[in-house]
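Example record used in the benchmark description.
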Amino acid sequence: MLKDHLKLHKRVILYTQIMPTIRFAREGRDVNCQIGENLREVALREGLELYGFKGKIGNCGGYGQCRTCTISIESGGSKSLSPTTQVESDLLKKSPKNWRLACQALVQGSAVVLTRPQSPPKDLKKLIDIANSVKLPN
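Model output (structure tokens):
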């Protein structure tokens, strides 16, 4: 019985070590999630403010049609999320290269993201510096 408990404990430790962490800089929150999980769904599940005013009353529900769930990747590299989709490329072609649609991005690794980058907070640089000053857990 103890042997089975130890096996389970080892599996739990291994499992939590490979879970990516998404650090939401504006909100000051770290969220563990599954590899392959949709970033929009992660943010909504955690009760984070993914949408601005317009997005709250008129978003496409995660179908990549409206740009209201735009986020920016502040660290973690291009491999922390799935490759950019054609839908994103079309909608964000005039946007900074680090902007993504949360509804089209699948988590592949840990990253620091900024929600609603089109309406940056006054203390943006400070928020990003703080978020990047602490190493991501995974």
